[in-house]
Each structure stands twice: as C-alpha cells, then as structure tokens.
Design a protein that fits this description.
By secondary structure, the chain is α/β, with parallel strands linked by helices. It has two domains: 7-121 and 270-282, Aspartate/ornithine carbamoyltransferase (Rossmann fold, 3-Layer(aba) Sandwich), CATH 3.40.50; 123-267, Rossmann fold, CATH 3.40.50.1370. 39% of the residues lie in helices and 16% in strands. β5 (143-147), α7 and β6 form a beta-alpha-beta unit.
C-alpha cells in the first residue's frame, strides 16, 4: 500500500509520474468513493484544493475536524484510521504531530496522505515542482533559493529538488536553517549570496506552524525580507510563496503582487498536484470496506 507522508516516500520516477498526471485530464478513479479529510489546523488552500481534487476524480470529500475525531483523547489514531477505512478510499490529514500520520499509515487500512505536518509538507513541494517546471521548462539544474526559516515547506522542497536534480540553497538566520543536513542543499546566512543567479526565489512567513510570534523574531528575520533589491540579484528569477503571506514582513507588496510573482499559479497547482498524488496512491491498496 502506498502512503505519502513525506517526499522521502517518493523516488525520482514517482515524482516524474505525479507531475505528468498533474497535467492530464482527471479520470473518475474515485467514482462512488469517499475521501476523509482530517484537519487539526485549518487552511484555505489545502481544504479547497483537496476537496476539488477529490471531486475532479469523481469522489466525495468529507471534511473532519479535531473535535469530531478526538485523536489521542477519545480514540487512538490507529482506531480512527481503521474506522475511516470502512467508509473511505483514502485518508488525508493535516496535523501538528507527524506521528499521528505514521500511526494511521501503519494500520494499512487505506492509503494515507499528508496534507501538512510539523515536519513535512509533501503536497506543497509537488505543487512547487510543477510550478517551477512550468516557469523554467525543466527541473534538472534549476537554481532554487529559499529565503527564511528551514521549516516543513523548505525541507520538503529541498528533498524534492534533490530528487529531480535541482540546486537548492537556503538562507536563514543562524540557528534557523536545517538542524540536520539534507543531501545537496547549501545553507548560508547571507540572503543576497543565496539568490544571486537564482531561477526561483522562494519565501514563507516568519512565524511557522507552532513557532512563537514576537518582536525579537521579526527583528531577527527582517534582513531576510524579499524585496526589489534582493530580486534584482536574480533578474530572470520568478518569485514563489506557499501562502498565506504577510506583505511588509517576509516579502514586500511590490514583489508578491508584481509581474515576476507566480504565487497564484502555485496556489492553483496545489489542486493539480493533490489530484495526481491521490492517483499515485490509488495505484495500490484495498477498496474501502474490504
């Protein structure tokens, strides 16, 4: 059975197949089937992209919140997965603790897809690769510069870039990059060095999921704001952001709303990559209730 909990669950061939399916008409692979969408943390893009992706595949999405399932309080993650597997063809979950996803997947009830956890965001990375390929025309050799914290978005994109042969550089304040190395990734505390000559300049909010918002943090990250000066170091680069954005903090309005911004194409691609990720997972595994 296939689960997509992290980019590490994929190989280069899997990514190639998922990206190819993202650009093809949607088959009715979920006709008459349900997909359980469990949200501990709300998201506009994730809910809308996943629900519409399920509909495009002919399925019926069911939105579930933490209070309805009570994972860890009323029931174990394993029992919830077994129960949902009686009704649904897939489970997708957006959680704080990645171990909830791991426990669900280990039941082998139905395929489990990570819509975001504290450590990984594979669906975002797949949408990002699709966007980069559309913008640049290739993935191998593309230079991606991530300016900001080494969070779940950055890590998943770094791992995805490594698989497809793209060059990934991250510029972060000291102590806010990747705690453990990622193959092929270059880390620096100089944002100008990171973006010089890049094809893609990417950033995210300074306050990631679970991080504490405070004035000291904003002061620490202020030199890492993506503005017109930073963009000028890469004249042909496109700008990307996973959203939501805070104009005036991690990016200026002139950049995110400017002609080099690809954030809305990137947001649309969340739906296409989610659809193809589900198709990839559906290639194996039992039907619901079997």
């Amino acid at each position: 059975m296939k689960h997509l909990l992290a980019i590490r669950d994929l190989g280069a061939d899997d990514i190639e197949a998922i990206l190819a399916m993202s650009q093809q008409p949607a088959p009715a692979a979920l006709s008459g089937k349900g997909v359980a969408l469990y949200f501990e943390k709300p998201s506009a893009r994730t809910r809308n992209s996943m629900e519409m992706a399920v509909v495009q595949l002919g399925g019926h999405p069911i939105y579930l919140q933490q209070a309805e399932l009570g994972i860890g309080a009323r029931e174990t993650a394993e029992d919830v997965a077994r129960t949902l597997g009686c009704y649904h063809r897939l489970i997708a979950a957006r959680v704080f603790d990645h171990e909830v996803l791991t426990a669900m997947a280990e039941c082998q009830a139905v395929p489990v897809i990570n819509m975001l956890s504290g450590t990984d965001h594979p669906l975002q990375a797949l949408a990002d690769l699709l966007t980069i390929k559309q913008l640049v025309g290739r993935l191998a050799g593309v230079k991606v510069a991530f300016v900001g914290e080494g969070n779940n978005v950055a890590r998943s994109l770094a791992e995805a870039c490594a698989l497809v042969g793209a060059e990934f550089t991250i510029a972060s304040p000291d102590g806010h990059g990747f705690n453990d190395p990622v193959d092929g990734v270059r880390q620096t505390n100089d944002p100008l060095e990171a973006v010089t000559g890049a094809d893609i300049i990417y950033t995210d909010v300074w306050v990631s999921m679970g991080a504490q918002e405070c004035a000291d943090r904003k002061a620490l990250f202020k030199p890492f704001r993506v503005d017109e000066r930073l963009m000028s170091a890469a004249p042909s680069a496109s700008f990307m952001h996973c959203l939501p954005a805070r104009r005036g903090e991690e990016v200026t309005a002139a950049v995110i709303d400017g002609p080099r911004s690809a954030v809305w194409r990137q947001a649309e691609n969340r739906m296409h990559s989610a659809r193809s990720a589900m198709l990839w997972a559906l290639e194996a595994g039992p039907q619901a209730g079997q």
